[in-house]
């Protein structure tokens, strides 16, 4: 039975909320995080003189009063968040601000309609847009707009669709894009930079741990410095702090990253930590944390960012951008007398030449979220003016997936889809929660609230007694259950029940190697889930054992909302290794989250952690497809077969193939079409394939030489021609003896052929014969013939316009590079620019028809280039051939449990 879900973050009474809209509209402040909401709420109650108020206070009030959108780009310490209060008072025409916050901790209430300033996180703002709670009269104030996320970018597009006015606040970035996209009347820029306090900046070619040597740390002690080191990873942050603490106990050492509660470094933020001190941080502290007494910054020029590659989020190691370096260095540069900045990099960075750049957007990697939002609103994605181009292929796949799962029907969210959308968790977990029985809900609620077992624990973790073999999900649940049993109790925060933990959780977490913040965040999210389902929060948490593992895996097998890997391969054949930190075995089905990362060569690799599902459950819920007629050219005897498959969410588990000699009456027409298509592709075992090849090539070449005036003979046309001649064929014996011909005169009359044959096949360029490939271009609905010169690369790089021969049609260019592929261009300047790049663009041919119309030389180059790329990326088994543990158990020996699957 499907559950009823209530979205507790929406105003309880939509009609009352809209009716209470003040004449001025409300001020909706969109914050990037839950903590930022609290900071903004505090700022709305303060009146403190700031640098921003001193420099631009009157301008800000004038723009706010004029009803214009504008932006503020201000460095840390200038008071941009404090400026929200005077903006609100000016727009609302009153100093009586009624401020409310809605985030994961604080629900919308019956009092929400009385608020004239509402602070929400990006995800909740997006839900309000979908519910119609944000109106054209409202003003959107977007704080920390430079902290890009898919949710924030979707909110910007939805705000533009509604017609809201935007006021946006940002740290150091190039504001050009935002000013144009959000129709800003002005952008006010300010900073706390004092030229007299410019820092001493040095570029050092060393890694972080070796940089923290005795000489540097002795200087820190001697000069009583406050040092902040920015590192890209959680492990790196912890190692650096541990190294300093061990070697120089006199230095107060601490670390902070996204897995730690902010209270661990509160003394640094409040100025209570005495110098010398050392604080290592991830990017979580680069712009939001104001560390008191900081006078030295060490920056590791490394970051890990998600790059969208063919619809996949690939975690890739990159250098820092100018914005990150400027924000990190800005902790002391121009703000502290005697400040020092060390940038650890293998690049020659000219710090003084760095300028803010446009932000890097994230929306392209979250096509599923865009698809569900559009379906909920009932709008086409083209109606949203998104800040970044969407990956159309990935978007279509996302829509198709959601339709198959019954979440989208006829372009709108189904009843089931609305229940899934209302859950405050990711779509896969929401599906399980909506369909689970009451016994499983506590386990699912906790598991869905934990990002992953890997992100929850440190490298030196202790999982003894809590491990559920084969399930990272249930093992993570058991850690939470143990923490609550030992250190937890039921309490209230903002009047809402929640699992809370006493101080002993710190000691427990240290012993287990668990991050306290992961436990606290899971408690918050779990409470939110129970409220959405209308269920009471459990007072006892029981460890998951075999019974729950069986129920959980059966629910997974029945609905399978996650990514699925079987025998370390995805449904499309991509290799996906089990994560090193997983408690799952290597083989069999594993359901969970696929994560993509770039290896040292920049090649995307996939890893999974999740839960192993017994194969018997997979087989129970697999579906047997109807019979499908196919032509398999690899079968010398009996290539026409009737195939039946056992499939499970894209995997072909089993297949049966039955040879077809005499065509069944109901399949006769389909059989003739399949054979005709195999003939057209040149795959069929028939004497006419070889016999007709030269004639087909001549007809296609004539079509190109004529500029499209003669009849086209692509794959579809050739298939139709053969199908006409197979009209009376009813068996494979009939097919083998059938006379299948392609008449040259039917497509190209003799007189036209003779005229086309007189066209030159090559021209002289620099005393060298250059072949001409004739082709037909179709652009903007027009078709015209072109001549493509097949230039040697050496000549192409230095050719001038004067040396290009004059022909009877427009000239295009191609350089064939063998295993590196081909480079095409419409003009010489474009060609030379592409040749100067360190790579060749992958030539993407949209259809089999287009492939068929390529010249022999281009087909050969594409074949070689494809084989080269496959070999370079490892191919199927190629990259890992011979590696211990690949294609075998973890010991390197063959695994007898491995199942063979049909292909």
Mean pLDDT: 87
Major β-sheet annotation: 7 strands, parallel
**Rg over C-alpha atoms, rounded to the nearest angstrom:** 33 Å
**How much helicity do the residues have?**
25-40%
Q: Terminal Cα separation, in Å?
A: 36 Å
Q: What amount of the residues lies in strands?
A: 15-25%
Strands across the major sheet, in which order? Answer: 3-4-1-5-6-2-7
In total, how many beta strands?
32
Question: Can you walk me through this structure?
Answer:
- The structure is a single chain.
- The chain is α/β, with parallel strands linked by helices and 903 residues long.
- Helices cover 36% and strands 20% of the residues.
- It has 33 helices and 32 strands.
- The strands form 7 sheets. Strands 3-4-1-5-6-2-7 form a 7-stranded parallel sheet, sandwiched between helices. Strands 8-15-12-9-11-10 form a 6-stranded parallel sheet, sandwiched between helices. Strands 13, 14, 20, 21, 22 and 23 form a 6-stranded mixed sheet that branches.
- Helix 6 links the parallel strand 5 (139-142) and strand 6 (165-170).
- It is globular.
- The two termini are 36 Å apart.
